[in-house]
Amino acid sequence: MKHIFQPGAEKEPTFILLHGTGGDEADLLQIGQAINPHASLLGIKGNILEQGLPRFFKRLAEGLFDEEDLRFRTTELFNFINEAATTYHFDVANSYLIGYSNGANIAGSLLLTYGDVFAGAMLLHPMVPMRKSHYPRLTNTPIFISAGRNDNMCTPAETDELIAIFETSDSEVTGFWHDFGHRLIADEVNEAKRWYTSLR
Ligand code: MLT
Protein backbone atom coordinates (compact mmCIF):
# COMPACT_ATOMS: atom_id res chain seq x y z
CA MET A 1 0.00 0.00 0.00
CA LYS A 2 1.20 3.55 -0.63
CA HIS A 3 2.65 4.90 2.60
CA ILE A 4 5.12 7.15 4.38
CA PHE A 5 7.24 5.95 7.29
CA GLN A 6 8.96 8.47 9.55
CA PRO A 7 11.11 6.81 12.20
CA GLY A 8 10.87 8.15 15.74
CA ALA A 9 12.97 7.67 18.85
CA GLU A 10 13.95 4.17 19.97
CA LYS A 11 11.35 2.35 22.12
CA GLU A 12 8.72 4.98 21.38
CA PRO A 13 5.52 3.61 19.81
CA THR A 14 4.51 3.72 16.18
CA PHE A 15 1.36 5.57 15.16
CA ILE A 16 -0.51 4.01 12.25
CA LEU A 17 -2.29 6.89 10.52
CA LEU A 18 -5.47 6.27 8.51
CA HIS A 19 -6.99 9.19 6.62
CA GLY A 20 -10.62 10.10 5.89
CA THR A 21 -12.28 9.86 2.45
CA GLY A 22 -10.39 12.06 -0.02
CA GLY A 23 -7.23 12.13 2.07
CA ASP A 24 -3.86 10.47 1.67
CA GLU A 25 -0.93 8.96 3.52
CA ALA A 26 0.39 12.40 4.61
CA ASP A 27 -2.88 13.73 6.04
CA LEU A 28 -2.50 12.77 9.69
CA LEU A 29 1.28 13.13 10.06
CA GLN A 30 0.93 16.47 11.86
CA ILE A 31 -1.66 15.04 14.21
CA GLY A 32 0.57 12.08 15.05
CA GLN A 33 3.43 14.47 15.67
CA ALA A 34 1.27 16.67 17.89
CA ILE A 35 0.22 13.67 20.01
CA ASN A 36 3.80 12.39 20.46
CA PRO A 37 6.68 14.12 18.64
CA HIS A 38 8.96 11.13 19.38
CA ALA A 39 6.68 8.42 17.92
CA SER A 40 7.39 6.69 14.61
CA LEU A 41 4.71 7.54 12.05
CA LEU A 42 3.30 5.20 9.43
CA GLY A 43 0.85 7.07 7.19
CA ILE A 44 -1.05 4.73 4.86
CA LYS A 45 -3.18 5.56 1.81
CA GLY A 46 -6.39 3.59 1.19
CA ASN A 47 -6.44 1.42 -1.95
CA ILE A 48 -9.99 2.33 -3.06
CA LEU A 49 -10.82 5.30 -5.27
CA GLU A 50 -14.40 6.60 -5.11
CA GLN A 51 -14.88 9.20 -7.82
CA GLY A 52 -11.22 10.08 -7.50
CA LEU A 53 -11.28 10.17 -3.69
CA PRO A 54 -9.05 7.67 -1.85
CA ARG A 55 -10.73 5.45 0.80
CA PHE A 56 -9.93 2.26 2.68
CA PHE A 57 -12.94 0.19 1.54
CA LYS A 58 -15.92 0.39 -0.82
CA ARG A 59 -19.35 1.61 0.17
CA LEU A 60 -22.69 1.11 -1.54
CA ALA A 61 -24.00 4.51 -0.41
CA GLU A 62 -23.08 7.03 2.27
CA GLY A 63 -23.07 5.14 5.56
CA LEU A 64 -23.80 1.81 3.83
CA PHE A 65 -20.62 -0.23 3.70
CA ASP A 66 -19.77 -3.01 1.24
CA GLU A 67 -19.25 -5.63 3.94
CA GLU A 68 -17.42 -8.12 1.73
CA ASP A 69 -14.96 -5.47 0.56
CA LEU A 70 -14.56 -4.19 4.14
CA ARG A 71 -13.55 -7.69 5.28
CA PHE A 72 -11.13 -8.08 2.36
CA ARG A 73 -9.57 -4.61 2.87
CA THR A 74 -9.28 -5.16 6.63
CA THR A 75 -7.21 -8.31 6.03
CA GLU A 76 -5.18 -6.54 3.35
CA LEU A 77 -4.42 -3.63 5.70
CA PHE A 78 -3.59 -5.95 8.60
CA ASN A 79 -1.16 -7.89 6.42
CA PHE A 80 0.38 -4.65 5.18
CA ILE A 81 0.88 -3.36 8.74
CA ASN A 82 2.62 -6.60 9.71
CA GLU A 83 4.87 -6.45 6.63
CA ALA A 84 5.69 -2.80 7.39
CA ALA A 85 6.57 -3.78 10.98
CA THR A 86 9.15 -6.22 9.59
CA THR A 87 10.48 -3.76 7.00
CA TYR A 88 10.78 -0.80 9.39
CA HIS A 89 11.55 -2.79 12.56
CA PHE A 90 8.66 -1.74 14.77
CA ASP A 91 6.55 -3.78 17.15
CA VAL A 92 2.84 -4.00 16.25
CA ALA A 93 2.09 -4.54 19.95
CA ASN A 94 3.66 -1.12 20.60
CA SER A 95 1.66 0.67 17.92
CA TYR A 96 -1.50 2.78 18.05
CA LEU A 97 -4.12 3.14 15.35
CA ILE A 98 -5.12 6.75 14.68
CA GLY A 99 -7.94 7.12 12.17
CA TYR A 100 -10.29 9.86 11.06
CA SER A 101 -13.73 9.11 9.57
CA ASN A 102 -13.26 6.40 6.90
CA GLY A 103 -9.81 5.70 8.44
CA ALA A 104 -11.42 5.41 11.90
CA ASN A 105 -13.93 2.96 10.43
CA ILE A 106 -11.30 0.60 9.06
CA ALA A 107 -9.36 0.99 12.33
CA GLY A 108 -12.53 -0.09 14.15
CA SER A 109 -12.82 -3.00 11.75
CA LEU A 110 -9.22 -4.07 12.52
CA LEU A 111 -10.01 -3.97 16.26
CA LEU A 112 -13.28 -5.91 15.94
CA THR A 113 -11.66 -8.49 13.65
CA TYR A 114 -8.31 -9.12 15.32
CA GLY A 115 -8.91 -8.09 18.95
CA ASP A 116 -5.94 -7.38 21.23
CA VAL A 117 -3.12 -6.74 18.76
CA PHE A 118 -2.34 -3.03 19.03
CA ALA A 119 -1.40 -0.97 22.11
CA GLY A 120 -4.48 1.21 21.68
CA ALA A 121 -6.49 3.28 19.23
CA MET A 122 -7.61 6.86 18.70
CA LEU A 123 -10.75 6.87 16.57
CA LEU A 124 -11.80 10.33 15.42
CA HIS A 125 -15.44 10.34 14.21
CA PRO A 126 -15.89 6.59 13.77
CA MET A 127 -19.04 4.64 12.85
CA VAL A 128 -19.92 1.02 13.67
CA PRO A 129 -17.90 -0.75 10.93
CA MET A 130 -19.57 -4.15 11.31
CA ARG A 131 -22.20 -5.83 13.45
CA LYS A 132 -21.48 -9.39 14.58
CA SER A 133 -22.86 -11.79 17.16
CA HIS A 134 -19.42 -12.21 18.70
CA TYR A 135 -16.54 -9.75 19.04
CA PRO A 136 -12.94 -10.55 20.03
CA ARG A 137 -11.46 -9.42 23.37
CA LEU A 138 -9.99 -5.94 23.59
CA THR A 139 -9.01 -6.17 27.26
CA ASN A 140 -5.55 -4.71 26.64
CA THR A 141 -6.56 -2.20 23.98
CA PRO A 142 -7.70 1.13 25.41
CA ILE A 143 -9.65 3.23 22.91
CA PHE A 144 -10.21 6.99 22.61
CA ILE A 145 -13.23 8.05 20.57
CA SER A 146 -14.08 11.61 19.58
CA ALA A 147 -17.40 12.56 18.02
CA GLY A 148 -19.61 15.52 17.15
CA ARG A 149 -22.93 15.80 19.01
CA ASN A 150 -24.36 17.23 15.79
CA ASP A 151 -22.52 14.99 13.31
CA ASN A 152 -25.05 13.83 10.68
CA MET A 153 -22.73 11.21 9.25
CA CYS A 154 -21.51 9.61 12.50
CA THR A 155 -24.60 10.15 14.65
CA PRO A 156 -24.39 10.19 18.47
CA ALA A 157 -26.58 7.06 18.58
CA GLU A 158 -24.10 5.20 16.40
CA THR A 159 -21.14 6.47 18.43
CA ASP A 160 -22.87 5.25 21.61
CA GLU A 161 -23.46 1.86 19.97
CA LEU A 162 -19.78 1.61 19.01
CA ILE A 163 -18.67 2.54 22.54
CA ALA A 164 -21.00 -0.16 23.91
CA ILE A 165 -19.54 -2.76 21.48
CA PHE A 166 -15.98 -1.95 22.54
CA GLU A 167 -16.97 -2.02 26.21
CA THR A 168 -18.63 -5.42 25.74
CA SER A 169 -15.29 -6.53 24.30
CA ASP A 170 -13.72 -5.39 27.57
CA SER A 171 -11.92 -2.33 26.22
CA GLU A 172 -11.56 0.76 28.34
CA VAL A 173 -13.16 3.46 26.19
CA THR A 174 -12.81 7.21 26.66
CA GLY A 175 -15.19 9.45 24.74
CA PHE A 176 -14.84 13.13 23.84
CA TRP A 177 -17.71 15.12 22.32
CA HIS A 178 -17.74 18.48 20.54
CA ASP A 179 -20.29 20.63 18.71
CA PHE A 180 -18.55 20.98 15.33
CA GLY A 181 -20.20 18.16 13.41
CA HIS A 182 -17.92 15.83 11.45
CA ARG A 183 -15.00 18.27 11.57
CA LEU A 184 -11.68 17.31 13.10
CA ILE A 185 -10.79 20.19 15.44
CA ALA A 186 -7.75 21.12 17.54
CA ASP A 187 -9.60 20.41 20.81
CA GLU A 188 -10.08 16.76 20.00
CA VAL A 189 -6.44 16.32 19.02
CA ASN A 190 -5.51 17.92 22.37
CA GLU A 191 -7.88 15.53 24.16
CA ALA A 192 -6.42 12.56 22.26
CA LYS A 193 -2.97 13.70 23.36
CA ARG A 194 -4.10 14.06 26.97
CA TRP A 195 -5.65 10.56 26.85
CA TYR A 196 -2.52 9.03 25.25
CA THR A 197 -0.21 10.74 27.74
CA SER A 198 -2.31 9.48 30.66
CA LEU A 199 -1.72 5.86 29.53
CA ARG A 200 2.04 6.13 29.72
C1 MLT B 1 -17.30 5.97 5.51
O1 MLT B 1 -17.75 5.74 4.39
O2 MLT B 1 -16.35 5.37 6.01
C2 MLT B 1 -17.97 7.03 6.28
O3 MLT B 1 -19.13 7.44 5.64
C3 MLT B 1 -17.07 8.16 6.57
C4 MLT B 1 -16.47 8.75 5.34
O4 MLT B 1 -17.19 9.10 4.41
O5 MLT B 1 -15.27 8.85 5.26
Tally of separate domains: 1
- What is the typical, i.e. mean, pLDDT? 97
List the helices and strands in order.
EEHEEEEEHEHEEHEH
Structural class: alpha/beta
Largest sheet: spatial strand order: 1-3-2-8-9-10-11
Termini distance?
30 Å
How much is the radius of gyration in Å? 15 Å
CATH superfamily: Alpha/Beta hydrolase fold, catalytic domain
Give a short account of the largest sheet.
7 strands, mixed
Instruction: Sum up the overall morphology in one term.
Output: globular
* Low-pLDDT segments: none
Counted by DSSP, the helix tally is 5
CATH fold group:
Rossmann fold
GO molecular function: hydrolase activity
InterPro entries: AB_hydrolase_fold, Dienelactn_hydro
Domain Dienelactone hydrolase: 79-176
Pfam families: DLH
Please provide a written account of the structure:
By secondary structure, the chain is of the alpha/beta class. The chain has a single domain (3-199), classed as 3-Layer(aba) Sandwich (Rossmann fold), CATH 3.40.50. It has helices at 29-35, 67-88, 102-114, 156-168, 186-199; strands at 3-6, 14-18, 40-44, 48-50, 53-55, 59-61, 64-65, 95-100, 120-124, 143-148, 173-178. It has a seven-stranded mixed beta sheet, with helices on both faces. A two-stranded antiparallel sheet has the order 4-5. The longest helix has 22 residues, at 67-88. It is globular and about 40 Å long. The protein starts with a strand and ends with a helix. The structure holds D-malate. GO terms for molecular function: hydrolase activity. This is Carboxylesterase. It holds the Pfam family DLH. Residues 79-176 form the Dienelactone hydrolase domain. It comes from Brochothrix campestris FSL F6-1037.
